[in-house]
Amino acid sequence: MNIAADLVHLSYCSQARTGLQAADLDKILEISKTNNHRDQITGLLTYSGDIFIQFVEGPKASIDHLMYRLRGDARHKDLIVLSEGVEHLRLLPDWDMELVTAQEAHGLLRDALRESDRYGTVIALSRLLAKLQPELYQDLDENDNSG
Ligand SMILES: Cc1cc2nc3c(=O)[nH]c(=O)nc-3n(C[C@H](O)[C@H](O)[C@H](O)COP(=O)(O)O)c2cc1C
User: Whose CA is nearest to atom 12 of ligand 1?
Assistant: First the structure.
């Protein structure tokens, strides 16, 4: 699942619906793994302090469809796209949709950063995750004058 025609990535943050339960999260992950496998989408989801940050990559048509469904999903609101762009290689070719903590994502990004020539993608994702846990990302922020 590494190479796909018209591969794009997209990341967004959103606010979880008030009172979202662990069981709701389980259902989201279950349907995500099934659908994403079908739609050739890979990525990760972090959930912390009622904020979701999701990174998805896949064929443009699949990502467009997913975004349409996500915008209509009442389990979250205030969805804001943080980054999107055309890619050549997947960052997470083996993950239909993994729920990770910001710390786990941080480690993953460090590895990807070392191995990837898609530096722009990794930096974009690092900045998103910095919004969740700024104290982990001071070394990246030091080089970031863009705000
Ligand atoms: C934070 C969040 C992340 C989600 N991520 C995915 C995903 O990666 N893939 C997916 O198919 N559905 C995901 N969903 C669920 C979709 O919004 C939608 O419910 C699901 O795709 C089934 O749509 P359908 O019933 O219209 O077929 C997510 C929902 C939420 C709230």
Answer: 32
